[in-house]
Amino acid sequence: MIKILIAEDQEIISQSLEIILGNKPDLKVIGVASDGEKAVTLAKRLIPDIILMDIRMPGIDGVKCIKIIKKVLPQIKIIVLTTFDDNDYVFNALKNGASGYLLKGLSSIELVAAIRTVFNGGALINPSVAVKVVEFFHETEAEDFKIHVDELEFNNLSKNELRIMQLIGRGMSNREIASEVNFSEGTVRNYISTILSKLQLRDRTQIAIFAIQSRLELKKIEN
Length: 223
Hints:
Number of strands: 6
Structural class: alpha/beta
Distance between the termini: 37 Å
CATH topology of the largest domain: Rossmann fold
Radius of gyration: 17 Å
Largest sheet: 6 strands, parallel
Order of helices and strands: EHEHEHEHEHEHHHHHH
């Protein structure tokens, strides 16, 4: 069962989401927050698996919520669900740990699939913003958006670790990576935990950003 918290200030939207998600046997909405402060409070109290986070909310906005929640509960996966695709919102949400960035208007089938993908270790970005995200993280020189790692630790990563980082940078889920490299999903999860520990990164989103910035997702890694 995937436990979901909805953070949305428009009641009609949050109610619609509750109805859509409540009809799925593997999904359960465990709470609804109408502002940023309540979203943080409920996240800490209920410990959902997934948060659907609007980006503009009263009080604390979605980007700040993501930063606060991921700092204390990094295991919670957050999907931004919004009408805004402004660059600053997108890049800051991903930088602070969002696993997905979706625009409202997608179908219920697409939303449910996105929740399941992120729950299973994937990342999902709306197609209309995906290209600009990759271009931005390739090209940006802004220190605020750069992911830094210890160069020695990175150079000492095994080929399997580098390969898994590369596939994360290409947006693959744990299941897809497992199929690609012929490992079990459990083995892939263990590799990811090791990579995070070695490079002192917070989550797989930071792995993806680093892989893109370093062009790792484009490089050929010999077996």
